[in-house]
Write a structure and sequence with these properties.
DNA-binding, nucleotidyltransferase, DNA-directed DNA polymerase activity, Alpha-Beta Plaits, alpha+beta, 602 residues, Nucleotidyltransferase, domain 5, 4 domains, transferase, single chain, Taq DNA Polymerase, Chain T, domain 4, DNA-dir_DNA_pol_A_palm_dom
Amino acid sequence: MRLIDYKIKHEPVRIHVVETPEDLPAFRRFIKDHRALIAWDTETTGLDWWQASAGAFHLRLAQFGTEHESYVLPVESDGPEGHFAEAARWALRTAERLVAHNASFDLHVVEQCLGIAMEELAPRSWDTKLIAHLADPRTVADGGPGHKLVELTRHYLCPRVADEVKSSMNVIARELKVKKDEVWRAVPLKHHGFNLYAGMDPVLAARLFKVLMPKVPERSRRKGLISWEHRTAHIAAKYERNGLPVNRAYVENRAAELTEAQRDAEATARTYGVENVGSNRQLVEAFTNLGVRLTKKTAKGNIAMDDAVLTAIDHPLAHAVKEAKKSAKWRATWFDRALAGIGPDGKVHASVNTVGARTARMSISGSIPAQTFPKGSGYVRGAFEAEEGFVIVSTDYSNMELRFLAADSGDETMLKAFQDDLDLHQITADASGVPRGIGKTVNFAYVYGSGPKNIAETCGITVAKAREVIHGFEETYPAVKRFSEQLQRHARRHGYIWTATGRRLPVDRARPYSALNYRIQSSCRDITARAMIELDRHGYSKWVKLPIHDEILFAFPEDRAEELAYETARLMEFTYKGLLIPAEAEIAGRSWGDLYNGDTKH
């Protein structure tokens, strides 16, 4: 047994680094003595847990601890008997409650590498990331504590520990002369800095749990948000595990097309003396030689050459540069990423952050960055498909945000429009004598907190006309205006608002107009989370692929698709303050892209 002694604000911390099976009895005594609540973590070769079955992903260390002490098990150095892996399994099953930071990842790891199903551990697991978000949902950039372990350590525990320990892997990467994302695989298992980093993780998680739990607002507790968020995260982890098959031929063809388009555009640029379309210097020189007057400057005072500048230049060189950059970005972001993420099961596995924004709106990253896909297009979605014999089904809410606004504000005109199935966008447009499209834009702009300038730019109208249309909206839906003003007053006075589900959302006092948007976006996110929980309760999680804001994507057996699609819509629909927020299912073919080619069934 190797010992590492450390201090957090003069409080001693001891890390026991297990080296041989003879060290395990002490570890087992430690777990038994603290079984009521054990903090834990894992160190792995990377983040791609779905590659474990192919041998490309490994569990290196498993760590368990309390506020003052931890044990590090070198699972990777196990002999054929698997003593360390078995000890880790035993500890996870012995603990009455577990706490980890970003627990969903570690649950995937132990399922893939230790054979313990997520369903066994999740019901008794706490996640300090989720608790931190309920305590304060702001990122560091927004003036909050953030939600990464290093950020929370710096804010709540000790800045020195954040700098010395949680940032140490960057130092180790430089020491080993490897990239940051390669250090986890490259660092020797017995490296002192690595063992300190690993051993401190459960200690920090245990301390954060103690600090953060009392900071969750009482109203949030009464509403059951702590257990709600943990259940939502666990369900999302099931979706991650399900994965989404990739149509490799489709992806390779799109990638090849974009590569060719990029080459052609770069060839055009070279005829104007631009060898590298990413070089600002070359572009400025080329456009200056062409007589183009460039006036926009960067923050550092250099001539700007961003997308807005290029769009304003009507010249083949500008078109070529934009095309080259767009093609390279699309290929790398969507198609190359999809190919790189394919696991041994032929699927890609997204990462779902169930508290992705201040409002807790979910975000999807990794191999399926769904929020970046072009709206209303099957171009990228065609890369992903259902399993053989299955079809894609999308069930989403109809006008969720506006319906919620109508019910929340109690505005009679807006409520009547939905109750009588009237055209709300036309009603808004008629109030100011503008086309329906402008009415639709203003309806959503009011929800999002957009001002007259943004509306004017979006709709191609004057700022004065945009103000007139906003005034028409407020005259038509007076209760919405009153409700928004009420939220803004609360935000100015207290610095936060409450959502319908009991979530406390800080609102910058300089931006009180954000209050309405925050309340609606967060409450609608919780309607989707409620749907996820309801679907899970009825056994549908095994078919879910992704939750995308107001939509949930499924893959159902083809011969049961109609029956199951109907049930998803029934389970997802929700009534708030007497107003139905309906859900509608759309059945496509095997490809996700089929939802956008018109060949679907409602």
